[in-house]
Amino acid sequence: TPDTPIEIQSVGDLVTNTSNPYYGKYDVPVTVRGKNLIPYPYTDSSGTAGGITNTINDDGTITANGTASADRTFTINKYTIQSGTYILSGTKNGSLSTYYMGISGTSCRDVGNGSSVTFDAEKTILIYISIKSGAILSNVVFKPQLELGSTATSYEPYKSETKHIYLDE
Q1: What is the mean pLDDT of the segment spanning 129-135?
Q2: What's the rounded Cα separation, in Å, for the pair 101 and 109?
Q3: With contact defined as beta carbons under 8 Å apart, do 122 and 79 qualify?
Q4: Using CA atoms, how far apart are residues 141 and 159, in angstroms rounded to an integer?
């Protein structure tokens, strides 16, 4: 689709293996991603800390349970993003005093309605879940999604597929 992000990873790698049917051609890997730009698997893994148990589900959602005995930060992922306007969404019924998802170094904090942020240049970002001391979470499901634009849409798990284009010159 026109809104699907495409990344050309490198241009000009010559296929040098003579048994490869594309021998002598230039291999141009192209990565096509879905609308959710948060790479999966995540940086932090399932586990318990500060009274909260986080379980990473197969679809990329995160289920949280427990009573926070201290402030807790769960790192979803850290990666580089291109300039543009993005919206972070996937928190349900949160608040700044209980739990939310955010992007470090910005005022982007999703408590349930999505939160947009604009980057003027390529930037390395860290997306996280913040759970505040005393918060009680009972099967709270976070659906981490960062997408282009300023309107949150329904959750889609992260997808990424690399294809190869072979060129003569």
Answers
A1: 98
A2: 6
A3: no
A4: 20
